[in-house]
Every structure is written in C-alpha cells, then in structure tokens.
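Weekly structure sync, notes
Attendees: PL (lead), two postdocs, one rotation student
Agenda item 3: pending single-chain targets
PL asked that the sequence for the first pending target be pasted directly into the notes so everyone works from the same version. It is reproduced below exactly as submitted, 123 residues in total.
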Amino acid sequence: MEEPQDHSVIFDDAAAVPDTFRIAVEQRDSHALMTLEGPVDLEAAASLRVEVERLLGGSAAVRIDWHAAGHFCAGAIQVLLALGAALTARGGSLSVAGDNPDIRRFLELAGLSGHFPVREQSA
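Predicted structure, written out during the meeting:
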C-alpha cells in the first residue's frame, strides 16, 4: 500500500512565521478580512474549511491576508479555490490584501495566481 503524499510547500523565510496555525476573521463594511498565520498544513486546512463555510453564509467579498503564513498544503489551496468559485458564482469576489512572496511564487508556478488577485497590500 502506498503512503499518502504531503503536497506541501515550505517557504524560505520560515523564521518569520509563527509555529502554530492561526486564523482570524474580521467583518468590515465591504468585505470580510481573513488573516492566516503559521503553517497551513492538512490539519489547518480542516479549520480553514470550517471558517470558509461560515464566511459563505454571509460575506460576498473576502480578502485574505496571508503575509505571515508558513507553508500551504494542496488541501488548503483547494479550500480557498472553492471559496473563490462559490463567491464568484454569487457575484462576490476573493482577493488578497496581505500578500506573501513565497506563496505568490508557488501559485505562479502552479498556474493559480490569477485566482488570487492582490487588491491592496495593507488591510
């Protein structure tokens, strides 16, 4: 039996990233701001999915601040892609407010950068 593969990417500036995953959501006038910090691994992807389901209940626009996120597993990217698709289908949008050059490079290499446009650098 083949072992499951972890499709995570670990980024260069690991010293600047918190050791544990944290997620915070702040409702603003025109959007919800979702801040992700630390490693976004498979366990974190499950927490992210719960928060995304809650956001879909009320927010039309979501901005992600992932400037302090560590690595991103493929499962977390899938959760965010599904959020973007659901928001777009309802006339909403998903964008990035606090970008991370390592995550951006990963998305560009994977051909997914266009799904996460940067709208503003500071949230």
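Discussion points:
- The helical segments are 42-55, 74-89, 101-110.
- The chain has one domain: 25-115.
Action: rotation student to compare against the earlier draft before next sync.
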